[in-house]
Design brief:
323 residues; mainly alpha; MetI-like fold; two-stranded antiparallel ribbon; 70% helix; 1% strand
Length: 323
């Protein structure tokens, strides 16, 4: 009996010793880190959480002159209007499809580019290609859209090459065809962001133990076999974490690119939720802040739900997850 009591007391004392304690002395040693952390916490509260008070506008018939406190409460009327609006349902389709295309192809191309770049043995050539691939990320969308538009016009380089190789007999109006808008947006995103997105995969590849490659080479594994059985399995946790983080951005398909590339002929395929919010909330003809806020809340709720759903699936399957 005494032996069991002493063991329980020992376990209790051991657990108490393992509990982290922030003493005054420890706080003094870590005060710089605590202050820096406090700054970011305050910044997040002010600029990320405090503005959420404005979500009240989605349940009001908000009038700017009356403010939030003076505007009439209308309940879910704005949400009912949203989901009864055929244009908004079309906007959801456009946003989701463009976001999904961007997520899938940007992930695939970034992984492929990182794998190919990792196989380059000439360090000078590798660094040069890596630097060149990063540069488009730092270009503004205005410049990117100008390049895309000039390349796809009737006198642009794409039509010129297609006609020179006798693939087409006359210029093809890419920018006037709704079916081409989503591929153009996807390819533009790939050209701009593939090099930048590959950075984290390259970093993950460099952390792989070189002894694994040496052992595989001794056993007769070729280059593609080493990629298939060593590199890709080692990248699996990184790929899953990034997919979980980016799945919430499916409805963040973009604003600048679609807004700048659109025209009257492809408008039904180019408008995203962000453009819809701009037209209703900021356009002088509408100035309906309540409807724009409701659309923004819908976008946020769907994004959070997607992250939670896919994170729970990953947890159930025993894969890497966010939390």
């Amino acid at each position: 009996m005494e032996n069991s009591v002493s063991k329980s007391n020992f376990r209790k004392m051991d657990s108490e010793e393992k509990k982290p304690r922030l003493s005054a002395k420890e706080f003094g040693r870590q005060k710089v880190l605590v202050i820096i952390s406090a700054i970011y916490v305050v910044y997040g509260l002010i600029f990320y959480y405090l503005p959420l008070v404005g979500w009240i506008m989605a349940f009001q018939n908000f009038i700017y002159a009356d403010g939030i406190t003076g505007s009439k409460f209308v309940g879910l009327d704005k949400f009912i209007f949203l989901f009864s609006d055929v244009k908004f349902l079309r906007v959801i389709r456009n946003t989701f499809c463009m976001g999904l295309l961007n997520l899938v192809f940007s992930t695939i191309f970034a992984i492929i580019f990182a794998l190919l770049l990792n196989e380059v043995r000439n360090k000078w050539f590798k660094k040069s290609i890596q630097t060149i691939s990063y540069l488009p990320h730092f270009l503004s969308w205005i410049i990117v859209v100008s390049i895309v538009h000039d390349a796809l016009t009737s006198t642009g380089i794409i039509n010129d090459l297609l006609m020179r190789f006798h693939i087409i007999s006359e210029p093809y109006p890419f920018m006037a065809k709704p079916a081409w808008f989503w591929p153009i947006v996807t390819l533009s995103n790939l050209w701009k962001e593939t090099g930048w997105n590959a950075i984290i995969y390259l970093a993950a590849i460099t952390s792989i133990d070189p002894a694994l490659y040496e052992s595989a080479s001794i056993d007769g594994a070729g280059r593609f076999q080493r990629i298939a059985y060593i590199t890709l399995p080692s990248l699996r946790p990184t790929i899953l974490i990034l997919l979980l983080m980016n799945v919430g951005n499916v409805l963040n398909a973009g604003f600048e690119l679609q807004y700048l590339l659109t025209n009257g002929l492809v408008q039904d395929w180019s408008r995203t939720i962000d453009i819809y919010i701009l037209e209703w909330a900021m356009d002088a003809r509408n100035m309906d802040y309540s409807l724009g806020t409701a659309a923004g809340i819908f976008k946020t709720v769907v994004s959070i739900s997607l992250i939670l759903i896919f994170n729970s699936i990953a947890k159930r399957k025993g894969e890497e997850r966010l939390f």
